[in-house]
């Protein structure tokens, strides 16, 4: 699975709201997302929910994020702020995880990815072996699910930041 991060815009925001998404959780994306554009001060991810229980799970996962915020589109001031953010103000990029695609990303295990597998997972694949790395997203956290033969491991993507950039933005 690959997560599509779309730049939030007012049309998309209106469509999400019409489809029942009342709550939107903002979180900071790591600095790696701004390194390719000198004019961008910060990037944010705004995730949509229709259930406050899911919002609370998300908030617990990002409790240390100083810029976290919950927009409730039933509150006019929140609605106005989020629509302003959807206009992509200068110096900022605001993304939303729009959908999951059923696409497996086969990544070669070179450089940082190979080092992570060797040092953290302590797997010893042969050169001919394929290691599958699939990105997933749940409640504000990106994960990478590694699989090799019948062994699987799920880790937070920020532990392997380079892989997140490769998969999300198709850098390779």
Overview of the molecule:
The protein has 172 residues and is an alpha+beta fold. It is built from five helices and eight strands. The strands form two sheets. It has a five-stranded mixed β-sheet, with helices on both faces. The longest helix is centred in the middle third of the chain and has 11 residues, at 76-86. The relative contact order is 0.20. Mean pLDDT is 77; it is low at 100-109 and 162-172.
Question: What descriptors fit this protein?
Answer:
single chain; 172 residues; alpha+beta; five-stranded mixed beta sheet; three-stranded antiparallel beta sheet; 8 strands; 29% helix; disordered C terminus
Secondary structure elements and pairings:
Blueprint: E1 2-7, H1 10-18, E2 23-28, E3 42-49, H2 52-61, E4 69-72, H3 76-86, E5 92-101, H4 111-121, E6 132-138, E7 141-148, E8 151-156, H5 161-169
Parallel strand pairs: 3-5
Antiparallel strand pairs: 1-5, 2-3, 2-4, 6-7, 7-8
Low-pLDDT stretches? 100-109, 162-172
Counted by DSSP, the helix tally is 5
Q: SSE order, as H and E?
A: EHEEHEHEHEEEH
By secondary-structure content and strand pairing, the structural class works out as alpha+beta
Number of strands: 8
Fraction of residues in H or I helices = 25-40%
Percentage of residues in strands = 25-35%
Radius of gyration over C-alpha positions, nearest whole angstrom = 17 Å
Q: Termini separation (Å)?
A: 17 Å
Which shape, going by the Cα principal axes? elongated
**Average pLDDT for all residues:** 77
Could you give the order of strands across the largest sheet? Answer: 1-5-3-2-4
Largest sheet: 5 strands, mixed
């Amino acid at each position: 699975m690959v997560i599509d991060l779309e730049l939030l815009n007012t049309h998309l925001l209106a469509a999400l709201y019409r489809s029942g998404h009342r709550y939107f959780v903002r979180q900071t994306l790591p600095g790696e997302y701004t390194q390719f554009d000198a004019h961008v001060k910060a990037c944010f991810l705004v995730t949509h929910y229709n259930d406050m229980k899911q919002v609370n799970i998300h908030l617990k996962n990002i409790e240390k994020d100083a810029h976290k915020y919950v927009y409730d589109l039933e509150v006019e001031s929140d609605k106005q702020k989020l629509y302003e953010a959807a206009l992509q103000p200068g110096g900022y990029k605001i993304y939303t995880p729009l959908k999951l695609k059923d696409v497996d990303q086969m990544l070669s295990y070179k450089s940082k990815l190979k080092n992570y597998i060797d040092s953290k997972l302590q797997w010893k694949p042969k050169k001919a072996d394929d290691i599958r790395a699939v990105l997933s997203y749940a409640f504000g956290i990106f994960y990478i699910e590694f699989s090799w033969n019948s062994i699987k491991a799920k880790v937070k993507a920020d532990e392997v930041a380079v892989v997140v950039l490769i998969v999300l933005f198709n850098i390779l």
